[in-house]
Amino acid sequence: MTDAIGSNGNKKVLKWMSIVGARPQFVKLGPVCRAIDEHNRQAGSQQINHVILHTGQHYDHEVSGLLFSQLGLPEPNYMLSAGSGSAGVQMARMMARMERALSVEKPDWVVVYGDTNSTLVGALLAARMKFPLAHVEAGCRSLDSGMPEEQNRIVADHLSRLLLTPSKSTVENLQKEGIGSGADPHKRRAVAVGDVMYDTLLQNLPLAQKFATEALEGLGFEKGNYYLLTIHRAENTDNPERLRTILQAASSLDLPVLFPVHPRTKHVLQAAKISPNGAVRCVPPLGYLEMLALGGNAKKILTDSGGVQKEAFYLGIPCVTLREQTEWPETVELGANRLGGVSAQSIREAVFGVQNEDWSHATPYGDGKSAQKIVNEIVNASEDKFQSVSH
Ligand code: UD1
C-alpha cells in the first residue's frame, strides 16, 4: 500500500491503477478520469493518484490512439504493448509485464473495466497480489459460457470486492451467483452506479453533433438514409461463413450500409477473400466522435457490440443485435433493440421489425453521472477498511 500523505492534513493519498487495453475500455475511462479530477479539486477531499496502465491489447491508431486523443485521456503511465496473438500468448505477455507494474506501484485499488482479456488479466493479478479490486460494468451476463467475454466477466466479478454495475438487473445477476447478497461470505459490495458509457456519450455528443453534417457529406450519405453496421465478436468472425451470411443480409436491405471494419474483422475478410457488395461501404474503424455523429444519423444500427447497442439506445436509433442474446435486456424489453440472430432471414426480419420510438422516458442505465458515483464508492470503500476482507 502507498504511504504518501495528502496535502489535506494526514489523509492518505489513494493510489488507483486503472487497467485498460481495448477500445470500449478507453470510452469507459474518459468520465472516470474527469470525475477523479473533479474529486481532487474539492477542498478537503481524500486525494486520488490515478495510474493508468494500457495493456496494448489494441494498438492500431484507429482503435487506440485516436480514442485517447478524442476523449482527452492522459497518456498512460504504463504501455505494455502486449499486442496480438492467440489468447494465451496475448494474456501471458500482459501478465508478466503487468505483474512488474503492480509490484512497483502497489496500488490501494486496481480498477478493471468491462470484459476483455485485459480485464481478466488485471483481475487475476490483483487478486493473486492481494490488491483490492473494483470492477466497472460488473454483473453483465449473456449466459453463453463459450464467449470469451462471458468467461472474463465471470472471473472478474467473482474476484472483485467492489462491483460497480450499470443497472438493477446486473446487481440481480450477481446476487444469483451469491455475490453482494446478505449471505455473501466475502462481503463483496455490488452497487448500481449506472452505465459509465452514458456519461461519455453525454459529455461528447455536443462536439460530435457539430461535425455530423461534414461527416455525412464526406461519405455521400444523407441523414436517416443509411444503416450503420459493426461486427467484431469472435463468435461472428471466427466462422467466415457466418460473417458472409451477415454481410449478405446487410447488402440485401433497402438502403446503403456504412460498415466501419474492426481490425479483427478485416483480417478475416482478407483471409477468407470475402468482399462485401456495393451496397455495403467498408471504411476504417471510426473515431468515437465520428461513431456518435454517424450512428446518431443512421436509420437503424446493426451490431454485435455491447457498447454500440447502448449507444444506439441513448441516441434514439433502433438497433438490431447480430447475436442470439444480449447483456442489455432492457433495450430489448423497451422495444429499442431486436435480437437478429445470425441467419439472413432473421436479420432482415429484425431490421424491418424494429421501429423508431421515443425511449427517452426510460433510464435503466442511470443518469449519466455514473463516474462520480464510481469515485465515491471506491473512496468510501477505502474508508470502510474493505482491506479486512480476504479473497
Ligand atoms: C476485444 C474484446 C471484446 C471487445 C473488443 C472491442 C476480448 C476477448 N475481446 O475484441 O470484448 O468488444 O475488443 O473492440 O478481449 N487487431 C488488430 N489491431 C488492433 C487490435 C486487434 O489488428 O489494434 C486484430 C489482431 O489480429 C487481433 C484481433 O484483431 O488478433 C483480435 O483482437 P483482440 O484484442 O484479441 O480482440 P477483439 O476482437 O478486438
Describe the structure concisely for a colleague.
The protein has 391 residues and is an alpha/beta fold. It is built from 16 helices and 13 strands. It folds into two domains: 7-195 and 366-390, Rossmann fold; 200-352, Rossmann fold (3-Layer(aba) Sandwich).
Please indicate the count of domains: 2
Biggest sheet overview: 7 strands, parallel
> In CATH terms, what is the fold-level topology of the largest domain?
Rossmann fold
Terminal residue distance: 17 Å
What is the typical, i.e. mean, pLDDT?
94
The proportion of residues in beta strands is: 5-15%
Classification by helices and strands? alpha/beta
CATH level-1 class of the largest domain: Alpha Beta
User: What would you call the shape?
Assistant: globular
Query: Which spans of ≥5 residues are poorly predicted at pLDDT below 50?
Result: 1-8, 386-391
Total number of beta strands: 13
Give the % helix. 40-55%
The tally of helices reads 16
| Order of strands across the main sheet | 3-2-1-4-5-6-7
Radius of gyration using CA atoms only: 21 Å
CATH superfamily membership of the largest domain? Glycogen Phosphorylase B
CATH architecture of the largest domain: 3-Layer(aba) Sandwich
Hetero groups in this structure are:
uridine-diphosphate-N-acetylglucosamine
H/E topology pattern: EHEHEHEHEHEHEHHEHHEHEHEHEHEHH
Task: Describe it.
Mean pLDDT is 94; it is low at 1-8 and 386-391. α6 (168-176) links the parallel β6 (162-165) and β7 (189-192). This protein has two domains: 7-195 and 366-390, 3-Layer(aba) Sandwich (Rossmann fold); 200-352, Rossmann fold. It is globular, with a radius of gyration of 21 Å. The protein has helices at 23-41, 65-70, 87-105, 117-128, 148-159, 168-176, 196-210, 212-219, 234-237, 240-251, 263-271, 288-295, 306-315, 329-333, 344-353, 370-383, and strands spanning 14-20, 48-54, 78-79, 109-113, 133-136, 162-165, 189-192, 227-230, 257-260, 280-283, 300-303, 319-321, 337-339. It is built from 16 helices and 13 strands. The chain is of the alpha/beta class and 391 residues long. α1 (23-41) crosses α7 and α4 (117-128) runs parallel beside α5. The structure holds uridine-diphosphate-N-acetylglucosamine.
